[in-house]
Amino acid sequence: MSDTFTVWHHDTIGSTNDEARRQAAAGAPHGTVIHADEQTSGRGRRSHVWFSPPGNLYMSLLLRTGQPAHRITELSFLTALAVADTVEALMPVNIKPMLKWPNDVLVNGAKIAGILLEQVDDATIIGIGLNVLEAPTGSGYRTTTIVANGGIASVDGARDILLDRFGHHLAAWQQCGFAPIRDQWLARTYPIGAAIRVNGNGAAMVGSFVGLDDDGALLLDTPQGRQRLIAGEVARV
Questions:
Q1: 69, 115, 173, 212: which sits with the fewest CB atoms below 10 Å from its CB?
Q2: DSSP output for 4-25
Q3: Taking Cα atoms as reference points, which of 89, 100, 76 lies closest to residue 191?
Q4: If you ran DSSP here, which 8-state letter would residue 88 be given?
Q5: What is the helix, strand, coil percentage profile of the chain, to 5?
């Protein structure tokens, strides 16, 4: 594990992101990690409840990157790459995780992890939930776990691999910018030209996937012309 990170472990916690926010407000340094065996109030994007029983990885990273606010969303793609690297390292060699915009990690079309970014003044909090042993049911989408796909992992082992891969991608991002992260992310997602549907703001838009803009916005060619989307849920048509 990279020595960039200092891990604070909890058996049970309400939310690792909430604890990381408290630590950020108290002046905790860059690289602080909150890891819990179980969350009683875990949450995902758009305030969704995040299923958090023992047996999975729940952690939040506190970063002070010194980068301007408009670049913070790039960390979402960076984190998805690190999670995908971790999943691939723990899976049989024939299974390759896929990334779905903006930051979902899928295995055989089923979601295996969740990522939540929040900002507290100059600190960025990145919450990560990775399904190692348990997956939620009744979520409205397919879910899976490391073990269900023939992988072997302990939660602490998955954490250490993830922090190592995150540290690697973070160093590249800080040195070279978003371009190499963007290229690696595109290599793990739908092929260029794939027909996809993007649901956002109560409307659905169908078109051909063009790629990502320089800041991570999704580019979609539709009959009405090229669209640049900054939020939404993507599905393959």
A1: 69
A2: T-EEEEEEEES-HHHHHHHHHH
A3: 100
A4: H
A5: 30, 35, 40
pLDDT tens digits along 21-61: 999 999 999 999 999 999 987 665 545 566 688 999 999 99
Question: Phi-psi region for residue 193, left (φ > 0), alpha (ψ -120 to 50) or beta?
Answer: left
**Model confidence over 116-156: pLDDT tens digits?**
999 999 999 999 999 999 998 777 789 999 999 999 999 99
For the question of whether the overall pTM of this predicted structure is more than 0.90, the answer is yes
Both tokens of 40, joined, read 């009683």
Domains identified in the chain and CATH numbers: 6-186 (3.30.930.10), 195-236 (2.30.30.100)
